[in-house]
């Protein structure tokens, strides 16, 4: 097991989650087809500013990021803040950690608050799969750069003479791991097969996600977490009437490579769709919140990031949380059963099921984690109780900033308790965190 | 005003000539308030009906303290001009009437005033409360003022307004100041042909000392429901202009427009369905952030218009729930909570439809008439908190809703009023902002129409 601090040094203070705002998430090439990352992030920030009466105010920092990002958006967060109602004197920076981005930005803000370096901050994330960057292909890029380097007209002509028709075809970003050439779905299918995850179990997760999200909307759970955008008032991926029986009729895809006897089990319903959206979370010191009469929904306790070697085959692409969580639990003296809510990002229903199976498996826990006893199971009725990514959709970098306030509000409603967040990310990484109220 | 093509036409150079020749009714451009504007744009004439008049002194000192030229003689030359030069205001102290014979003195004063009153001038008659008189002759004389004012209103031109203020027996000069300032200033641009009672709910308390009249809401926290757009958004901006911190409330589905309003006024946005059971508690909880509440403006309202013959229960109930029940529930919570500060102000929005009725609007008309009943009954209950409740009843106000009306309906709405035009959202907002002032403590239980003296239900 990789070494991590085995006990957490006590920090001067814990960062408070004060509140949040996101825009409804929209399926790709739909309601937000013409909205850029900067448009969506600015709208989400402005909704947050309005909710907390911060027009013209400076916060300590805004940290955000996007996975699919145009090169002109190199300073995406700064540009969004300059276009927002926050004071232009608010510092920013961009972070990118695939689907873990905005849980990581939350951690970065929380840590600076804990250390007393800032008193408040906004963690955010945004992604568009509709307004995606398109690059010129590598061949054309080489030719153009060569022409740019040429010192004479003749040199430029010579360089451009190297152009070939095939170089006109642009590079369009794909949901594909560069080192394996496999799509994320193909990776997830392999992991599902390795852990024997059934179609039925995946569809149960998917149906529950939609049903829980619909119930949460009905009871007004998102009234203070969301602001409508471009005509959307709810995540438009939501299908409130989803049932296991209905989902069973969908055609499965991604026959797992290397598992000739296993049928495909993954469908459009038990996998997250490509989605556009933005989410923000306001964090602060307790003092900052108290001075403004703002609530403290929960505190950020601790977080852990792990990575696995999925390239050389010893672990599944999206299994890093299976390693991150045990490390986080150990450092905080907790067991997997010590939580009131479990917020697991549903990249694929099979992903979280494979993670749970690993923790129940004595061999995995012994060989991979070095534990004599497995982590065991937990009360599944506490899992994603107001829905998760299968229902909301998953704008990659925005998901963490959706989940953090969701859990914080659940804990606040309960009055006390502890919750666990887990997000798997492309590149074989995973970010997990604990909140307490 | 941009979509009132008729007004634009008759106010253009060519249009004015043609309108004059063929006798088209003019549409006066109304003077509206902006920060720093003087109370009156010129001299004032101040008349007294009897030697027993008790408010002329107050009015005179207010005006002269502001450096305004005041004359008692309605024929006096003013501003270095002649005895026919224009004046900005004609004010009559009509208190102390002993019989209808005393009215002749008022006629004698107002006849020259009607000839001399300038564009957007102010004619204000201040009388005693008729119901406080036991003598038939006295009460007849007091009540006669209302007929005089409403009729004079229909004769006034060029945006001049004529209004009547009743002053209860126990009120003193300071109790009148915010009301005088409202009716004399251009904040009351579209309030015309109306009556308002001051001091009629006993037990009021408050002060006009040290008020910054350019920021009369400074330091106060206000809630405005229905603030995402339309009149509500303008109310939020007007309260902010007058110094208030504004909590903007609207339904979650209007949240994006609500956020814009809140950010425009530097306030906070609260997405809330005011008909939800938890709404009063959520509202008070949010207000706790700002250290409590001083002003609540019940502006949110819906219409579900249907002829009564075609109305159904769900549409009916939704109108009554939003326009009336939600306000009652919030008011109950305000009265029971310390979050609603002593000296608080509740301002609600009734409607011309609640006074005159409107075809297709039985539910809306019922809800808006109900608002008036709510104001009547709530006003005395608020006295123990030195608080007040008042209603504004807008007439035809130019909004996105009226812009979408059929042309005929819209033109009738605009022209069938003494001012021959629709009001602007800011006209409603100015009246609300005045009710909301701490200095308006003696104004309680009132319903004031902001309708340019619309002929419907007048």
UniProtKB/TrEMBL annotation, chain A:
<feature type="domain" description="Thiolase N-terminal">
    <location>
        <begin position="16"/>
        <end position="286"/>
    </location>
</feature>
<feature type="domain" description="Thiolase C-terminal">
    <location>
        <begin position="296"/>
        <end position="436"/>
    </location>
</feature>
<keyword id="KW-0808">Transferase</keyword>
<protein>
    <submittedName>
        <fullName>Acetyl-CoA C-acetyltransferase</fullName>
    </submittedName>
</protein>
<dbReference type="InterPro" id="IPR002155">
    <property type="entry name" value="Thiolase"/>
</dbReference>
<dbReference type="InterPro" id="IPR020617">
    <property type="entry name" value="Thiolase_C"/>
</dbReference>
<dbReference type="InterPro" id="IPR050521">
    <property type="entry name" value="3-ketoacyl-CoA_Thiolase"/>
</dbReference>
<dbReference type="Pfam" id="PF02803">
    <property type="entry name" value="Thiolase_C"/>
</dbReference>
<dbReference type="InterPro" id="IPR016039">
    <property type="entry name" value="Thiolase-like"/>
</dbReference>
<dbReference type="Pfam" id="PF00108">
    <property type="entry name" value="Thiolase_N"/>
</dbReference>
<keyword id="KW-0012">Acyltransferase</keyword>
<comment type="similarity">
    <text>Belongs to the thiolase-like superfamily. Thiolase family.</text>
</comment>
<dbReference type="InterPro" id="IPR020616">
    <property type="entry name" value="Thiolase_N"/>
</dbReference>
From TrEMBL, chain B:
<dbReference type="InterPro" id="IPR036291">
    <property type="entry name" value="NAD(P)-bd_dom_sf"/>
</dbReference>
<dbReference type="InterPro" id="IPR020904">
    <property type="entry name" value="Sc_DH/Rdtase_CS"/>
</dbReference>
<protein>
    <submittedName>
        <fullName>3-oxoacyl-ACP reductase</fullName>
    </submittedName>
</protein>
<comment type="similarity">
    <text>Belongs to the short-chain dehydrogenases/reductases (SDR) family.</text>
</comment>
<feature type="domain" description="Ketoreductase">
    <location>
        <begin position="220"/>
        <end position="400"/>
    </location>
</feature>
<dbReference type="Pfam" id="PF13561">
    <property type="entry name" value="adh_short_C2"/>
</dbReference>
<dbReference type="InterPro" id="IPR002347">
    <property type="entry name" value="SDR_fam"/>
</dbReference>
<dbReference type="InterPro" id="IPR057326">
    <property type="entry name" value="KR_dom"/>
</dbReference>
